Amino acid sequence: MEWKLICIGCPLGCELTAQVEGGEVRSVTGNTCPNGERYARKELTNPTRILTTTVRVKNGALPVVSVKTRGEVPKGKLLDCARALKAIEVAAPVALGQVIVPDLLGTGADLVATKSVEQA
Description:
Radius of gyration: 18 Å
Helix content: 10-25%
Shape: elongated
C-alpha cells in the first residue's frame, strides 16, 4: 500500500511516498535529508505527539497554567491523557518546568508547566 506524507522533520516539508506491506515500511522516497525517512517510518509504525494543553490553578494569579509533555505520547493515548487532565488542579505558585504529572498515564512522559503562575 502506498502512503503520502508531508515531512515535519525539518523546515523543507518534503512530500514523502512510503510503501507499506504487511505493516512494515518497505521504502520511503521523496526525502531530501535522513530526517524524512525516519519521520515516515515512525509515523507509519508508532505515531507519537507532544501534548500541549492547560490545567487549572488553585489560588493562582491566573486560572490556568499552560503545560506540555516533556516527551512524546503515543497518538492513540492523546485523548485519554487530555481527559485525565480535566481532573487535575495544581496549587499556586507554579514554576516554569515544574512537573505537574509524572509519567502521564504510564506513557513515560512527564507533564510540565510551560509558564510560571504566582499565588493570588
